[in-house]
Design brief:
about 725 residues; alpha/beta; Phosphorylase Kinase, domain 1; Rossmann fold; Dimethylsulfoxide Reductase, domain 2; seven-stranded mixed beta sheet; six-stranded mixed barrel; 27 strands; globular
Length: about 725
């Protein structure tokens, strides 16, 4: 019988077999396809998952997760899986360019790198001579890998004005921890019995921790999840879901603290030996009885009591406080401190199964070994000028605790020139859409005399630049990474830089030379920076380069519960501070050392009849990261239209159906989006998915709707009204 008769595929010739292997993207000598390893740096540095890049003829034809990677273990989210489209986006910047049209118009002419360097050097040095170095501000958005290098560059230039998107991301949580306990602390999931999860939703965000959470659930760990939305996590993990009114987490935490004290569920020994200000905290918290807390939070008193008892009595207990949802309110810093205080009340701080104090190794990544990250840039800090940093007078606690200017005050200072003018702005991945009242930020970009932007893409912000510099992706450069578990890595480029792009660090090194900046270490380049920071560890850059995977740092050591407390906490009192002496010592006495509560919309007079809804921006989408990924076909196809989620009952009352066009108005601006009626959110709230160019959520957030402690914007509590757009 023939092969056809018995169903056997016919034998392929050598050429046909090779063709089949190429179509299947099988690596090997026959296909010319090689697997080279790198990382995905699309999202925050807490991840940067390992990537296998399939490369043929110098081009990336496929990406997959690196299964042997000790941190990500072969997993890639939807964003990471789309890296090839990200790298080869049509709007990649290809060459240095000079603006020839109006700002925002996006008209540029190509120039050489040498010409770009000379133009930048001449202008920045001229401003330094004429107006002083502080008249030049330096800003980093995404990516973050070069940040210490830029930080040192700014200081070596003489400017105190280095800032980053940390002005609205994560840093407020660090401030809250340091003002209370002297150190950030992370949940000890491996030994806990109960998890108090604020906005915990690893199905959409922080996906690498999800398998661990599911395994914890399987072994009997209890989950209390506090979230204004019903999510996959509240449905699959939560034993108790507290569907709280947005921005009232602090009231809940104070009510839980009051109940813990009154029921005698405190750890009396820990409080007596290791805390400061307990009596003042207890007196203040006593004003938050169950009835009041239920009214403030929109929760049932019985549910609050049940959650409190489970947390306090089923220890050890830990908490996962998401970095963004808690602090993206004008009361966010204090809300976060109120949550932290629960650990001190119950003795779950520095305890196995509770919150373990940990030192950040590099870019906020906790790897278990020390690097001289802060020493690298602080040795060049013009210390006598710190009080002059942008936002210093408006946000004194931020200025006291963070070695960056508070960028939420940048547009105001550019536009008013007070207390001194900002003449030039040098941005790396600067994105105006991250700023509240985005039109005001664009106005500032039109007003500043000289604006340089280095980025991968022709973003809306890049269109305002005087000089554009094209950056490379993580696939086109080498960089250092620290990973949990004591790992370190130094990646290698898997393809040559596309077009005429260069790495941010290379551009800064070259500029330091052209500008005549007196800093030999800076001029040595990025590898010299990393070598400086690694001193004290036995691992070298050469060791890391010799491995395709992260390697262990012998100096890495696990956290020993109790050791941090026994040594004395790095706070003014050496103790866990319910009453923060760091806040008390701040120049602005309007800031309260106790974790006091205020309403998330109490700073404005917005009549309910005019703005009956609360707008919450920033709900996570698994296919997007802010505004960076909506222009990639694969990811945009997962949610094509800008949409707002509204409560199904509210939608019915307004005659709004799924897919209707609706207009959202705030006192600051308006956007038109598609309606997504839902039973997942609370009545009276609107959750607007952010990042869409045609419907920018931050147009609706007032520029002065800011937390006085941290300067963080109140992204997630804004006055709003909704109306149906008429068609026809």
């Amino acid at each position: 019988m023939s092969d056809k008769q018995i169903g056997r595929p016919p034998e392929l010739g050598a050429g046909e077999r090779t063709s089949e292997l190429r179509r299947a993207k099988i690596p090997g000598p026959a296909t010319g396809i090689a697997i080279k390893r790198t990382i995905c740096d699309i999202c925050a540095p807490g991840f940067h998952c390992g990537v296998d890049a399939y490369v043929k003829d110098g081009a990336i034809i496929k990406v997959a997760g690196t299964k042997a990677h000790p941190f990500s273990k072969g997993k890639l989210c939807a964003k990471g899986a789309a890296n090839r489209q990200y790298i080869y986006r049509r709007d990649r910047l290809r060459t240095p360019a000079r603006r020839v049209g109006q700002r925002g118009e996006g008209k540029f002419e190509p120039i050489s790198w040498d010409e770009a360097y000379r133009l930048i050097a001449d202008r920045l040095n001229d401003y330094k001579r004429s107006w002083g170095p502080n008249s030049v501000a330096f800003f980093s958005g995404y990516a973050k890998w070069y940040r210490q290098y830029l930080h040192r560059f700014a200081y070596s230039f003489g400017s105190i004005n280095y800032g980053s998107e940390c002005s609205s991301c994560y840093k407020s949580t660090v401030m809250a921890w340091e003002a209370t306990a002297g150190s950030i602390a992370k949940p000890d999931f491996g030994r806990t019995n109960t998890v108090l999860g604020f906005a915990l939703n690893a199905f959409y965000s922080n996906h690498l921790v999800l398998p661990n959470l599911l395994a914890m659930k399987e072994r009997g760990v209890k989950f209390i999840i506090i979230d204004p939305r019903k999510t996959p996590a509240t449905e699959k993990l939560a034993d108790i879901h507290l569907q709280i009114r947005s921005g009232t987490d602090g009231a809940l935490a104070l009510g839980m603290g009051n109940l813990i004290i009154k029921k005698g569920w405190t750890d009396k020994e820990f409080i007596a030996r290791h805390t400061h200000g307990f009596e003042r905290y207890a007196e203040y918290a006593s004003g938050f009885d169950l009835a009041k807390v239920a009214r403030l939070t929109g929760l049932r008193a019985a549910d609050i009591e049940a959650a409190t008892e489970l947390y306090a009595r089923n220890g050890p207990a830990c908490a996962q406080e998401s970095a963004s949802p808690i602090v993206h309110h004008i009361n966010g810093f204090q809300n976060y401190r109120a949550i932290i205080c629960l650990h001190g009340l119950t003795g779950n701080f520095d305890r196995a199964g509770g919150q373990l104090p940990m030192e950040a190794t590099f870019y906020d990544q906790i790897a278990g070994y020390h690097m001289r990250e802060h020493e690298y840039y602080l040795e060049r800090q013009p210390r006598e000028l710190k009080a002059k940093a942008i936002g210093a007078g408006r946000f004194p606690l931020w200025n006291k605790m963070v070695d960056e200017f508070q960028a939420m005050d940048l547009s105001r200072q550019i536009l008013t020139g007070k207390p001194y003018p900002i003449k030039a702005l040098m941005g790396f991945g600067l994105n105006a859409k991250m700023f509240p009242d985005t039109p005001k930020m664009y106005e500032a970009l039109r007003a500043v005399e000289f604006f340089v932007d280095m980025d991968l893409f022709m973003s809306d912000t890049a269109k305002y630049a005087d000089i554009l510099l094209p950056a490379v992706s993580s696939f086109e450069r080498g960089e250092f990474k620290a990973y949990p578990g004591g790992f370190a890595a130094y990646t290698q480029p898997v393809v040559k830089p596309l077009y005429d792009a260069r790495s941010d660090a290379e551009a800064l090194r070259d500029l330091a030379e052209v500008m005549g900046i007196d800093d030999p270490l800076l001029k040595e380049g990025y590898e010299a920076e990393i070598a400086y920071m690694l001193k004290g560890n036995s691992v070298t850059i050469e060791d890391m380069k010799a491995s395709e995977l992260p390697i262990l740092v012998p100096e890495a050591a696990p956290v020993v519960p109790g050791a941090f407390t026994a040594a004395g906490m790095p706070t003014p009192t050496g103790k866990f501070e319910f009453y923060s002496e760091t806040v008390a010592g701040c120049a602005d006495q309007a800031l309260d050392p106790l974790p006091t509560y205020r309403e998330p919309l109490s700073d404005g007079d917005f009549p309910a009849e005019d703005y009956p809804f609360v707008l919450v921006t920033g709900a996570r989408l698994p296919n997007a990261l802010h505004s960076r990924l909506h222009y990639m076909p694969w990811l945009r196809s997962l949610r094509k239209a800008a949409a707002a989620e509204i409560n199904a009952g509210d939608a019915a009352a307004l005659g709004i159906r799924e897919g209707d066009k609706i207009r959202l108005d705030s006192p600051t601006g308006s956007v038109t989006v598609i309606a997504d009626p839902s039973g997942r959110i609370r009545p009276g709230e609107i959750h607007l998915y952010h990042g869409y160019r045609e419907a920018n959520a931050n147009d609706l957030v007032a520029g002065d709707h800011l937390d006085p402690y941290s300067g963080f914007p109140g992204y997630k509590s804004n006055p709003c009204r909704i109306s149906k757009e008429m068609t026809g």
